[in-house]
Amino acid sequence: MIRYATAAEVEAALGRAMTCAEATWFQYSATMPDYWLWWHTALVFLVFYTLTPLPLALLEHLAPAVALKYKLQPRVRLSPAALFRCYRDSARLVLIVMSPCLIVFYPIVKVMGIIRTGLPLPSIWEIAPQLVVYHFVEDYLSYWIHRLLHTKWAYNSIHHVHHEFRAPAGFAASHSHWAEVLILAIPTFVGPAVVPCHVTTHLLWFSVRVMEAAETHCGYDFPFSPAKLIPFYGGAEYHDYHHYVGGHGQSNFSSIFTYCDFIYRTNKV
Ligand SMILES: [Zn+2]
Ligand SMILES: [Zn+2]
């Protein structure tokens, strides 16, 4: 919640006029409690998890001939009903697990000052390095968690659910055991805990992660994908191989980049 009642008070405190983005944020968030702004994380998950895989799912259904030449495992086709079931069950599970966690951890977030909600909004020069740090923290921690999930007990008890789809689709990105949803949320939240940010940066970071996860699980390798321009980025082909090999696989554990697999000699493809 912003502690000023009017735009004029905010501008007096800032010593300048609000930018367009700041005026929009002020109008949207001025009377909202901070815990509700923090809970937007769940809302962001739902919106991006619903919308990101949708164009490819529609393309595959409406124009399969166009999509097929880029499909990594062209012989595997998931029916629209199977895709919808996967989406519905995954989205419901993540929301059921995430919502109480966001509420439980909110007091810690508040006391430790991990997230701020007021004005001014962060500049691009603040956001960009934060997102870089969050990516590397996420990538390193999730690499080791994913490796642990491939030990015999953890795989048979937890991670086998995620590997149900040997040819994944975007909607299968969060198809996981509830314990995995919890465990793999840790690397996503550690970055902002280490380097505190504005809640809008946190929501941006979360939306980027949901889109990246959908992209790496999409099952298609498009040569014109902008992700191919990012050095050491794994992408769909890289993670598709991990799913194709299945539970016995001990390679391509990274969730974003490939450097951990390269350093620890677990990279293939
Ligand atoms: Zn795995
Ligand atoms: Zn996966």
UniProtKB/TrEMBL annotation:
<keyword id="KW-0456">Lyase</keyword>
<dbReference type="InterPro" id="IPR006694">
    <property type="entry name" value="Fatty_acid_hydroxylase"/>
</dbReference>
<keyword id="KW-0472">Membrane</keyword>
<feature type="transmembrane region" description="Helical">
    <location>
        <begin position="93"/>
        <end position="115"/>
    </location>
</feature>
<keyword id="KW-0521">NADP</keyword>
<feature type="transmembrane region" description="Helical">
    <location>
        <begin position="36"/>
        <end position="59"/>
    </location>
</feature>
<keyword id="KW-0812">Transmembrane</keyword>
<protein>
    <recommendedName>
        <fullName>aldehyde oxygenase (deformylating)</fullName>
        <ecNumber>4.1.99.5</ecNumber>
    </recommendedName>
</protein>
<feature type="domain" description="Fatty acid hydroxylase">
    <location>
        <begin position="132"/>
        <end position="266"/>
    </location>
</feature>
<keyword id="KW-0256">Endoplasmic reticulum</keyword>
<comment type="similarity">
    <text>Belongs to the sterol desaturase family.</text>
</comment>
<dbReference type="GO" id="GO:0005506">
    <property type="term" value="F:iron ion binding"/>
</dbReference>
<dbReference type="GO" id="GO:0008610">
    <property type="term" value="P:lipid biosynthetic process"/>
</dbReference>
<dbReference type="GO" id="GO:0005789">
    <property type="term" value="C:endoplasmic reticulum membrane"/>
</dbReference>
<dbReference type="GO" id="GO:0071771">
    <property type="term" value="F:aldehyde oxygenase (deformylating) activity"/>
</dbReference>
<dbReference type="InterPro" id="IPR050307">
    <property type="entry name" value="Sterol_Desaturase_Related"/>
</dbReference>
<dbReference type="Pfam" id="PF04116">
    <property type="entry name" value="FA_hydroxylase"/>
</dbReference>
<keyword id="KW-1133">Transmembrane helix</keyword>
<dbReference type="GO" id="GO:0016491">
    <property type="term" value="F:oxidoreductase activity"/>
</dbReference>
